[in-house]
Amino acid sequence: VTVGLACGGAIGAATAAGAAEIRFHLPDECGEKRDVVDQAEALLGRPLASVPGVDFEVDIIQTASARWRMRLDTIGVARGSDPTTAARKTRELRAASCAELAEAAATAIALTVRSLEGDGEGDRDRKTRSAPSRSAPPLTVAPTRPSPAPPAIVSRVTSPPEHLRAALAVGAMGDAGSLPGVGAGLEMSGWVQLRGVRLATSGAVLAPREKRLSDGSGGNFQLAFGAIDVCAPRELGRSTFLLCGGFELGYLWATGIGVNRPRQGGAVWDAARAELGLSVSIGPSMAMVMRGGASVPLSRPDFALGGAIPVHRPSSVAGRAGVDVELAF
């Protein structure tokens, strides 16, 4: 009796040690981990503890602009494989919500187990057909039952359609070189993104800046412009790195000060620009964007009092920096 109990305990321990295991790394927004296991077992038709030779790792994180990404690692192969040489297969999925990825993880786990077991049944059928006919009793090999069709959610999540993303933003910007000294202003922008290319538009107004000569005369300068940029975003976890280039078109004007007859004059502002940016997610649909770059005026108008006394000319390169709050939808 003692020997029998010991053998039975050893067999049970070996079976439990080889049972499928799921390791989770997911936020609380995704729901309970047990729900993913229950759904996978419901699709499979039996407990995952009865499936040997394969483990899973589910890792779900939120990326920038309210997107979610899941990494599903399948560790091991079908029955009979050597655990020391277990293979790891990785699948990445993206969706608009964490709950959707959790449901997709359960479906993918169930389908993976069915696929591995299907390969094992095919190996047994080939061995049976290759065996001599005299050693195989008639009608002992049952036809393989076809696996049920996968739920609709698998095709929807594993092969997602191209997703058009968009956002609006408002923030503050600083400028050095367009106006006299260092200026500041407000900026509004928006963008749309498809297939890894982002098209952005923006408009900005810089606060007036004065420049006076030694006799107290001078001018009060201001700049307003619109811009269009093409950006290449790259996601880095919950952040997105941006490399942008574009063009500005606006109006630079000034009003004379400290003179008997102050007059106003202006010129078209046109400039090429380049920026680097970093977008950091701060909520389900919000992000903070930090930007820095330069603007190169294509024309540099001269402002002078009475047409003879020079007051200001934009720099050949203007530095820019800004911070925006972005709302994605």
Task: Please characterize this protein's 3D structure.
The chain has 329 residues and is an alpha+beta fold. 21% of the residues lie in helices and 47% in strands. Residues 1-17, 125-137 and 152-161 have low confidence and may be disordered.
Short description:
With 329 residues, this protein is of the alpha+beta class.
Annotate the secondary structure layout.
Elements: H1 2-17, E1 22-25, H2 33-44, E2 55-62, E3 68-75, E4 88-95, H3 98-130, H4 152-158, E5 165-176, E6 182-194, E7 197-212, E8 218-236, E9 239-257, E10 264-281, E11 286-297, E12 303-305, E13 309-312, E14 318-328
Parallel strand pairs: 1-2
Antiparallel strand pairs: 2-3, 3-4, 5-6, 5-14, 6-7, 7-8, 8-9, 9-10, 10-11, 11-14, 12-13
Number of helices: 4
Stretches with pLDDT under 50, minimum 5 residues: 1-17, 125-137, 152-161
Spatial strand arrangement across the major sheet: 5-6-7-8-9-10-11-14
Determine Rg (CA atoms, Å): 33 Å
Query: What overall form do the CA principal axes indicate?
Result: rod-shaped
Secondary structure tally: strands = 14
What average pLDDT do the residues reach?
80
Distance between the termini: 68 Å
Name the helicity range. 10-25%
For the report, how would you describe the main beta sheet? 8 strands, antiparallel, barrel
The helix/strand series, from N terminus to C terminus, equals HEHEEEHHEEEEEEEEEE
Which band does the percent of strand residues land in?
over 45%
